[in-house]
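Final report, section 2: Outcomes. Of the targets proposed, Lipocalin-like domain-containing protein is the one most frequently requested by collaborating groups, and we therefore present its record in full.
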Amino acid sequence: MKAFKLSVLSMALLSIAACKKDKVVTQPTPIKLSGVYIGQFTYSYYGATIYGEGLQGNVTVTFSGSKYKSTSPSDNFAAGADGSFVVNNDKQITFADSSVHPANFNWGIILNGSYNYSTKGDSLFLINKSSSTISNYRLKKQ
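The predicted structure is given below as tokens.
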């Protein structure tokens, strides 16, 4: 009888030990952007030096609802853009600029298109890479 009780107890303990809680997989929450961010914008070329050096300057990006506006006090480039944005997931934001720009304009220097993003504290980092250029925003929430 003792052996029977011992074996039942052993089986019960093994059953409990063998039970494994299912892990709950949660999706990262996409960032919610609002307010004013100020920082640096850089636009660089890959490879050939024929294009010369890239551009760099201060930039302010304001987010409100699903709208954004970027401005720069710099005369080096016209980084101004105004439009809507969508946070696609926990790594990418798509900007749709609705501003009018001249035909001979370098479209790479405006906040438009899909950007990978990351955050650290109150800082926001945006990066867009093409086959020949890279646009990079390093912003801090005000």
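The helical segments are 2-18.
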